[in-house]
Amino acid sequence: MPDPVVGAVLAKAVGAAGSEAEKTATSLFARVLGPSADAIGEALGRYTTYRMRNVGKIVERADAKSGGRGDRGIVNPRVAHVLLDEGSYCDDELMADYLGGVLAGSRTPNGRDDRAVAWSRVITGLSALQIRAHYLLYREWAARLHGVPGLNLGADRDCAMMDVELAEFATALAHDGDLDLDAVMHHSIPGLVSASLLGDHYSFGARDATQAEDSPFESVLRVWPTVTGLELYGWAQGLPGLLPYKFISEAIAFDLEDAIPRLVGVALNRLPKPPSAP
Protein backbone atom coordinates (compact mmCIF):
# COMPACT_ATOMS: atom_id res chain seq x y z
CA MET A 1 0.00 0.00 0.00
CA PRO A 2 1.33 3.53 -0.76
CA ASP A 3 3.15 5.17 2.16
CA PRO A 4 1.48 7.90 4.28
CA VAL A 5 3.09 10.76 2.32
CA VAL A 6 1.65 9.42 -0.93
CA GLY A 7 -1.63 8.85 0.90
CA ALA A 8 -1.85 12.57 1.56
CA VAL A 9 -1.27 13.28 -2.12
CA LEU A 10 -3.92 10.75 -3.10
CA ALA A 11 -6.42 12.33 -0.74
CA LYS A 12 -5.73 15.71 -2.29
CA ALA A 13 -6.24 14.18 -5.74
CA VAL A 14 -9.77 13.10 -4.91
CA GLY A 15 -10.61 16.38 -3.18
CA ALA A 16 -10.38 15.19 0.41
CA ALA A 17 -8.38 16.26 3.47
CA GLY A 18 -7.58 14.91 6.92
CA SER A 19 -6.17 11.64 8.21
CA GLU A 20 -9.34 9.62 7.62
CA ALA A 21 -9.65 10.98 4.09
CA GLU A 22 -6.03 10.03 3.45
CA LYS A 23 -6.71 6.49 4.63
CA THR A 24 -9.80 6.28 2.45
CA ALA A 25 -7.98 7.61 -0.61
CA THR A 26 -5.04 5.27 -0.05
CA SER A 27 -7.44 2.36 0.36
CA LEU A 28 -9.17 3.31 -2.90
CA PHE A 29 -5.90 3.25 -4.84
CA ALA A 30 -4.85 -0.03 -3.22
CA ARG A 31 -8.25 -1.58 -4.01
CA VAL A 32 -8.08 -0.58 -7.67
CA LEU A 33 -4.38 -1.21 -8.32
CA GLY A 34 -3.79 -4.17 -6.02
CA PRO A 35 -0.10 -4.83 -5.26
CA SER A 36 0.89 -2.45 -8.06
CA ALA A 37 -0.09 0.43 -5.77
CA ASP A 38 3.28 -0.02 -4.05
CA ALA A 39 5.18 0.08 -7.32
CA ILE A 40 3.56 3.27 -8.60
CA GLY A 41 3.04 5.08 -5.28
CA GLU A 42 6.44 6.78 -5.30
CA ALA A 43 5.95 8.05 -8.86
CA LEU A 44 2.51 9.43 -7.98
CA GLY A 45 4.05 11.38 -5.14
CA ARG A 46 6.07 13.41 -7.66
CA TYR A 47 3.06 14.39 -9.79
CA THR A 48 1.75 17.95 -9.79
CA THR A 49 -1.64 18.70 -8.25
CA TYR A 50 -3.15 18.99 -11.74
CA ARG A 51 -1.87 15.54 -12.75
CA MET A 52 -2.89 13.95 -9.46
CA ARG A 53 -6.40 15.36 -9.79
CA ASN A 54 -6.71 13.65 -13.18
CA VAL A 55 -5.29 10.41 -11.78
CA GLY A 56 -7.85 10.59 -8.99
CA LYS A 57 -10.70 10.83 -11.53
CA ILE A 58 -9.42 7.79 -13.42
CA VAL A 59 -9.04 5.66 -10.31
CA GLU A 60 -12.46 6.68 -8.97
CA ARG A 61 -14.05 5.72 -12.31
CA ALA A 62 -12.17 2.42 -12.29
CA ASP A 63 -13.49 1.67 -8.81
CA ALA A 64 -17.04 2.51 -9.87
CA LYS A 65 -16.83 0.33 -12.98
CA SER A 66 -15.60 -2.61 -10.93
CA GLY A 67 -18.41 -2.05 -8.42
CA GLY A 68 -15.93 -1.20 -5.65
CA ARG A 69 -15.66 -4.92 -5.06
CA GLY A 70 -11.92 -5.06 -4.51
CA ASP A 71 -11.80 -8.32 -6.47
CA ARG A 72 -8.66 -10.33 -6.06
CA GLY A 73 -6.30 -9.63 -8.92
CA ILE A 74 -3.30 -7.61 -9.90
CA VAL A 75 -2.90 -4.69 -12.28
CA ASN A 76 0.28 -5.23 -14.27
CA PRO A 77 2.78 -2.60 -12.99
CA ARG A 78 3.55 -1.51 -16.55
CA VAL A 79 -0.15 -1.00 -17.18
CA ALA A 80 -0.52 1.05 -14.01
CA HIS A 81 2.47 3.21 -14.86
CA VAL A 82 1.64 3.83 -18.54
CA LEU A 83 -2.09 4.34 -18.04
CA LEU A 84 -1.83 6.70 -15.08
CA ASP A 85 1.24 8.54 -16.37
CA GLU A 86 -0.29 9.30 -19.76
CA GLY A 87 -3.79 9.69 -18.31
CA SER A 88 -2.59 12.22 -15.75
CA TYR A 89 -2.53 14.86 -18.50
CA CYS A 90 -6.13 14.14 -19.58
CA ASP A 91 -8.66 16.41 -17.90
CA ASP A 92 -11.60 15.47 -20.13
CA GLU A 93 -14.29 13.67 -18.11
CA LEU A 94 -15.16 11.16 -20.83
CA MET A 95 -11.53 10.30 -21.51
CA ALA A 96 -11.00 9.76 -17.78
CA ASP A 97 -14.05 7.49 -17.80
CA TYR A 98 -12.66 5.44 -20.70
CA LEU A 99 -9.29 5.11 -18.98
CA GLY A 100 -11.06 4.12 -15.76
CA GLY A 101 -12.80 1.33 -17.65
CA VAL A 102 -9.50 0.10 -19.06
CA LEU A 103 -7.95 0.16 -15.59
CA ALA A 104 -10.93 -1.68 -14.10
CA GLY A 105 -10.67 -4.39 -16.74
CA SER A 106 -6.92 -4.85 -16.47
CA ARG A 107 -6.78 -6.86 -13.23
CA THR A 108 -5.76 -10.50 -13.67
CA PRO A 109 -4.87 -13.25 -11.16
CA ASN A 110 -1.13 -13.15 -11.91
CA GLY A 111 -0.74 -9.57 -13.13
CA ARG A 112 1.04 -10.60 -16.35
CA ASP A 113 -1.63 -9.34 -18.75
CA ASP A 114 -0.49 -6.01 -20.17
CA ARG A 115 -3.02 -5.60 -23.02
CA ALA A 116 -4.33 -2.47 -21.33
CA VAL A 117 -1.08 -0.66 -22.19
CA ALA A 118 -2.04 -0.69 -25.87
CA TRP A 119 -5.64 0.36 -25.19
CA SER A 120 -4.65 3.20 -22.87
CA ARG A 121 -2.40 4.52 -25.65
CA VAL A 122 -5.24 4.25 -28.16
CA ILE A 123 -7.38 6.42 -25.88
CA THR A 124 -4.71 9.00 -25.05
CA GLY A 125 -3.77 9.15 -28.74
CA LEU A 126 -7.27 10.42 -29.59
CA SER A 127 -8.62 13.90 -29.08
CA ALA A 128 -11.46 14.56 -26.66
CA LEU A 129 -13.73 15.12 -29.67
CA GLN A 130 -12.81 11.76 -31.17
CA ILE A 131 -13.44 9.97 -27.86
CA ARG A 132 -16.82 11.69 -27.61
CA ALA A 133 -17.71 10.68 -31.18
CA HIS A 134 -16.75 7.07 -30.43
CA TYR A 135 -18.87 7.09 -27.28
CA LEU A 136 -21.93 8.67 -28.91
CA LEU A 137 -21.93 6.13 -31.74
CA TYR A 138 -20.98 2.92 -29.92
CA ARG A 139 -23.34 3.66 -27.05
CA GLU A 140 -26.16 3.68 -29.60
CA TRP A 141 -24.97 0.38 -31.05
CA ALA A 142 -24.77 -1.06 -27.52
CA ALA A 143 -28.30 0.09 -26.66
CA ARG A 144 -30.05 -0.58 -29.97
CA LEU A 145 -28.41 -3.92 -30.84
CA HIS A 146 -28.72 -5.44 -27.38
CA GLY A 147 -30.32 -8.87 -27.67
CA VAL A 148 -31.20 -8.52 -31.37
CA PRO A 149 -31.87 -12.11 -32.53
CA GLY A 150 -29.88 -13.47 -35.44
CA LEU A 151 -27.19 -10.77 -35.32
CA ASN A 152 -23.50 -11.69 -35.17
CA LEU A 153 -21.17 -8.70 -35.35
CA GLY A 154 -18.25 -11.05 -35.79
CA ALA A 155 -19.62 -12.49 -39.04
CA ASP A 156 -21.56 -9.58 -40.54
CA ARG A 157 -21.06 -6.04 -39.33
CA ASP A 158 -22.72 -4.71 -42.48
CA CYS A 159 -26.05 -5.37 -40.75
CA ALA A 160 -25.07 -2.80 -38.11
CA MET A 161 -24.84 0.09 -40.57
CA MET A 162 -26.18 3.12 -38.70
CA ASP A 163 -27.60 6.42 -39.95
CA VAL A 164 -27.58 9.37 -37.55
CA GLU A 165 -29.24 12.71 -38.16
CA LEU A 166 -26.23 14.86 -38.91
CA ALA A 167 -27.19 18.13 -37.22
CA GLU A 168 -28.10 16.35 -33.99
CA PHE A 169 -24.86 14.39 -33.94
CA ALA A 170 -22.65 17.39 -34.74
CA THR A 171 -24.36 19.46 -32.05
CA ALA A 172 -23.94 16.68 -29.47
CA LEU A 173 -20.30 16.39 -30.47
CA ALA A 174 -19.50 20.11 -30.29
CA HIS A 175 -21.28 20.33 -26.96
CA ASP A 176 -19.55 23.45 -25.63
CA GLY A 177 -20.96 25.59 -28.43
CA ASP A 178 -17.81 27.40 -29.60
CA LEU A 179 -16.65 24.95 -32.28
CA ASP A 180 -17.42 24.98 -35.98
CA LEU A 181 -19.67 21.99 -36.67
CA ASP A 182 -18.19 21.25 -40.07
CA ALA A 183 -14.64 21.30 -38.70
CA VAL A 184 -15.71 19.07 -35.80
CA MET A 185 -17.09 16.44 -38.16
CA HIS A 186 -14.08 16.48 -40.47
CA HIS A 187 -11.79 16.03 -37.47
CA SER A 188 -13.65 13.38 -35.50
CA ILE A 189 -15.04 10.89 -38.02
CA PRO A 190 -12.01 10.56 -40.35
CA GLY A 191 -9.84 10.40 -37.22
CA LEU A 192 -11.77 7.41 -35.90
CA VAL A 193 -11.60 5.78 -39.32
CA SER A 194 -7.83 6.32 -39.43
CA ALA A 195 -7.54 4.61 -36.03
CA SER A 196 -9.65 1.64 -37.30
CA LEU A 197 -12.41 2.56 -34.84
CA LEU A 198 -15.00 3.08 -37.61
CA GLY A 199 -15.41 1.43 -40.99
CA ASP A 200 -13.73 3.23 -43.88
CA HIS A 201 -16.84 3.40 -46.09
CA TYR A 202 -18.50 6.18 -44.10
CA SER A 203 -20.25 9.29 -45.41
CA PHE A 204 -21.79 12.46 -44.04
CA GLY A 205 -23.54 15.43 -45.53
CA ALA A 206 -26.77 16.13 -47.41
CA ARG A 207 -28.55 12.87 -48.20
CA ASP A 208 -28.64 13.52 -51.95
CA ALA A 209 -24.93 14.34 -52.06
CA THR A 210 -23.68 11.26 -50.16
CA GLN A 211 -23.79 7.52 -50.57
CA ALA A 212 -26.78 7.39 -48.21
CA GLU A 213 -29.62 8.17 -50.61
CA ASP A 214 -31.91 5.67 -48.85
CA SER A 215 -31.48 7.32 -45.43
CA PRO A 216 -34.57 8.62 -43.61
CA PHE A 217 -32.67 11.83 -42.76
CA GLU A 218 -32.14 14.79 -45.07
CA SER A 219 -28.65 15.32 -43.63
CA VAL A 220 -26.98 12.15 -42.43
CA LEU A 221 -23.92 10.54 -40.93
CA ARG A 222 -23.64 6.90 -42.09
CA VAL A 223 -21.17 4.67 -40.24
CA TRP A 224 -20.25 1.04 -39.56
CA PRO A 225 -18.61 -0.44 -36.45
CA THR A 226 -15.24 -2.21 -36.51
CA VAL A 227 -13.76 -5.00 -34.41
CA THR A 228 -11.36 -2.50 -32.83
CA GLY A 229 -14.11 0.01 -32.14
CA LEU A 230 -16.31 -2.64 -30.52
CA GLU A 231 -13.47 -3.87 -28.34
CA LEU A 232 -12.52 -0.35 -27.26
CA TYR A 233 -16.10 0.26 -26.11
CA GLY A 234 -15.89 -2.98 -24.12
CA TRP A 235 -12.69 -1.86 -22.40
CA ALA A 236 -14.27 1.54 -21.66
CA GLN A 237 -17.10 -0.33 -19.96
CA GLY A 238 -14.61 -2.40 -17.96
CA LEU A 239 -14.88 -5.55 -20.12
CA PRO A 240 -11.46 -6.61 -21.43
CA GLY A 241 -11.22 -8.30 -24.81
CA LEU A 242 -14.93 -8.03 -25.71
CA LEU A 243 -15.40 -10.19 -28.82
CA PRO A 244 -17.66 -8.88 -31.61
CA TYR A 245 -20.18 -11.72 -31.37
CA LYS A 246 -20.62 -11.00 -27.65
CA PHE A 247 -21.17 -7.28 -28.10
CA ILE A 248 -24.96 -7.56 -28.43
CA SER A 249 -25.23 -9.50 -25.17
CA GLU A 250 -22.55 -7.91 -22.97
CA ALA A 251 -22.15 -4.28 -24.04
CA ILE A 252 -24.39 -1.80 -22.25
CA ALA A 253 -25.22 1.88 -22.78
CA PHE A 254 -23.18 3.11 -19.81
CA ASP A 255 -23.42 6.72 -18.65
CA LEU A 256 -21.09 9.22 -17.04
CA GLU A 257 -21.83 10.80 -13.68
CA ASP A 258 -22.83 13.88 -15.68
CA ALA A 259 -24.85 11.97 -18.27
CA ILE A 260 -24.59 12.80 -21.97
CA PRO A 261 -28.04 12.62 -23.62
CA ARG A 262 -28.69 9.75 -26.00
CA LEU A 263 -29.08 10.39 -29.71
CA VAL A 264 -32.67 10.38 -31.00
CA GLY A 265 -32.36 10.55 -34.78
CA VAL A 266 -30.90 7.09 -35.36
CA ALA A 267 -31.82 4.41 -37.92
CA LEU A 268 -30.51 0.85 -38.29
CA ASN A 269 -32.17 -0.28 -41.50
CA ARG A 270 -30.11 -3.38 -42.28
CA LEU A 271 -30.84 -5.40 -39.17
CA PRO A 272 -32.09 -8.94 -39.77
CA LYS A 273 -35.86 -9.16 -39.85
CA PRO A 274 -37.42 -10.92 -36.86
CA PRO A 275 -38.88 -14.35 -37.66
CA SER A 276 -42.51 -14.28 -38.68
CA ALA A 277 -45.03 -15.24 -36.02
CA PRO A 278 -46.60 -18.70 -36.58
In short:
The protein has 278 residues and is of the alpha+beta class. The protein contains 12 helices and 6 strands.
Descriptive notes:
With 278 residues, this protein is of the alpha+beta class. It folds into 2 domains: 121 residues, no CATH class; 140 residues, no CATH class. The chain has 12 helices and 6 strands. Helix 6 runs antiparallel to helix 7 and helix 6 crosses helix 11. The chain is globular, with a radius of gyration of 20 Å. The N terminus is likely disordered.
Overview features:
disordered N terminus, about 280 residues, 6 strands, alpha+beta, two-stranded antiparallel ribbon, 2 domains, globular, 12 helices, four-stranded antiparallel β-sheet, about 50% helix
Helix % is 40-55%
Largest sheet: 4 strands, antiparallel
Shape: globular
Number of helices: 12
Radius of gyration: 20 Å
